[in-house]
């Protein structure tokens, strides 16, 4: 048997076919036409090796044809892979083509079409050697190709993850992203009480703005205004907890940081408005309320559906209700007494009175923050602080109605004195620079008129 080279030829064909099927990922167990042709070729090559012991000519003439058919199929498959970018298949095509030419010459010789020559004697040997050389080369290149493909796929996966992380970061709070980065599961967050400072900002005249503006203007204005708030919140290590239309809720670790962020938000809005006015667009106005106390930090929603990390509590409502008074008092920023006490060394603030907030049974003393104003406005408001404190003391609750009325009259006299000396607004001609004085006058006068009539006036107008 070892002297009959056709036996080794048939064995080489079997190995070549099995290798080609594995290389081209052709399954021999599935019920497809191609897999059946490959199996027939394997069987024919094995039969050629066996029958060649008894009749070599018959073995080659009968059993070598299926092999040629399969090799042609493999060449076409490899060419398709080359066109698809799989370059190691080039070596497969060269190796199989060389072997196919050699075996075809041998087959034509045994059929009497070609006469004896060097190629009919040694062509198959050289064909096998060429095939082995290029198959081995292709296997080596294939390994490098897969390594490079794996590296490229890994790089693509990292880029996809970075892109996905960037999207998640924009739609989630930095705290949530940080927890995910640390390997924590934000969904398992336990509710807790936290001491936090809160800013609630709201755009003024938003309803009118929506009704009178087109979509592009609404989008540009809202994103510019809210973007300025977001930038300063992140700059001061805060967190944007909610964006509800034109309203933004931000949280900070302490009142000092919250105050600094609040001032920078107002300055950023001033820069934005200067650009808007210069381009012929109206300025954006907003009111800001800040508070400081314990709130509940928790996941709100339904697991598996929608969760939102939020803060709830009385101080959140207080911040929103304080903000609603900024328009009434013609101020930009208001804080309650507890917040004021936490930043008592801050210079640019003054009391504006006590107010009964919605849902509250007791009054809340509020302070205006004006550190973001121009130096001229800051200095003037600072000069009125002592008078404002005196007015607040005069308007504090008293049991005696007549005494209260008298205190209110004195408070109004003090405010009227400030109004007479108040300088004119920088760009609103005919308007006072400090319009909060007028707002307080109206508030105190209304409260005075709502007082119960004293004994000396009770019964007047009746007969």
Short synopsis of the structure:
This protein is an alpha+beta fold. It contains 16 helices and 8 strands. It is rod-shaped, with a radius of gyration of 44 Å.
Q: List the helices and strands in order.
A: HHHHHHHEHHEEHEEHEHEEHHHH
User: DSSP strand (E) fraction?
Assistant: 5-15%
Annotation field: number of helices: 16
* Class based on secondary structure composition and strand pairing: alpha+beta
Distance between the termini: 144 Å
| Largest pleated sheet | 8 strands, mixed
Helix content: 55-70%
Q: How many strands in all?
A: 8
Ranges where pLDDT stays below 50 over 5 or more residues in a row are 456-463
Would you write up a description of this structure?
The chain contains 16 helices and eight strands. The relative contact order is 0.05. The protein starts with a helix and ends in a 14-residue tail after the last helix. The chain has helices at 5-23, 33-51, 56-63, 65-83, 89-110, 118-171, 174-181, 206-212, 215-235, 255-278, 314-329, 337-342, 375-383, 385-394, 401-421, 436-449, and strands at 192-203, 239-244, 247-252, 286-302, 306-312, 333-336, 349-355, 364-369. Strands 1, 2, 3, 4, 5, 6, 7 and 8 form an eight-stranded mixed sheet that branches. The chain is α+β, with helices and mostly antiparallel strands. It is rod-shaped, with a radius of gyration of 44 Å. 60% of the residues lie in helices and 14% in strands.
